[in-house]
Design a protein that fits this description.
mainly alpha; two-stranded antiparallel sheet
Length: 259
């Protein structure tokens, strides 16, 4: 765990500039995800120039959604401490908050620009995995989003874990996401219908996230205290939604092939 990547000093500046590992991972993840999206859009959809505004919109929507859901995990805490809500750049984001905010805005943007929605969502499935997995590696180095106490070989101690060895759930999730990317790239060569990769991604992630929540040990918001966390509840809804649309699109594709 290395929360600070390196320090350096600028000319005529008295303090050292610190580059934090979490922020570095987010930047690198975003850059690689953007490059992959542009490359894939050009190769698969013949979109020579995908506007940078597309990525700006995604970033802004993800930032707002991730922050909003973070506040909603402990609404009374932030209501009683409103100054904490202004601390927008020190962490505190919920992935599902970003996700459910980004998707409808992306769909609106694609339709408005007359860009094929389902093929682009398939591309964004891999895009999201790239950014998300590197972000989780950043979480590990920052010491946030850690797991519950464990005596297993995988146990790690974090600054906020009270000197207890806990599950490195950040690395569990990053590893799972990389595995999902491999599976999706394999299926891509045998893809049955447009949108299949995206729906498989959100379905697989929903299952993995619901399971991973069982190993989380940091302060989590619950829908049912100590039984069903916010993320598990959202995961169930997303899984059911992905199953519904998967069956719908698969059936529609069969009808088109039969005709």
């Amino acid at each position: 765990m290395h929360p600070e990547l390196f320090n350096f000093q600028l000319p005529f500046y008295t303090h050292n500039v610190t580059i934090y590992t979490y922020a570095f991972c987010i930047v690198i993840g975003t850059l690689l995800a953007s490059l992959y999206t542009k490359w894939s859009a050009k190769k698969e959809l013949n979109i020579v120039h995908l506007p940078n505004t597309f990525f700006y919109i995604i970033f802004i929507a993800g930032f707002i959604g991730g922050k909003l859901f973070f506040y909603l995990e402990r609404p009374l805490h932030f209501w009683n401490n409103p100054k904490l809500m202004l601390d927008n750049f020190s962490g505190g984001f919920v992935f599902y908050g970003s996700f459910v905010t980004i998707i409808p805005i992306v769909i609106w943007y694609l339709k408005n620009r007359k860009i094929p929605v389902l093929p682009m969502l398939d591309i964004l499935a891999i895009t999201t995995i790239i950014a998300h997995s590197l972000g989780r590696i950043g979480c590990f180095n920052a010491g946030c989003c850690y797991g519950s106490e464990t005596t297993s070989f995988f146990g790690n101690t974090f600054p906020n874990s009270n000197n207890l060895a806990v599950h490195p759930t950040q690395l569990y999730e990053a590893t799972t996401l990389i595995l999902f990317a491999i599976i999706l790239l394999y299926i891509k060569k045998r893809q049955q219908f447009k949108g299949q990769l995206f729906l498989l991604y959100i379905g697989m992630y929903a299952i993995s996230r619901a399971i991973l929540e069982l190993f989380r040990g940091d302060n989590r918001g619950y829908v049912i205290d100590n039984y069903l966390s916010h993320s598990q509840f959202i995961a169930i809804l997303i899984l059911l939604t992905s199953i519904f649309f998967y069956k719908k699109l698969k059936t529609k594709n069969k009808l088109i092939l039969n005709n």
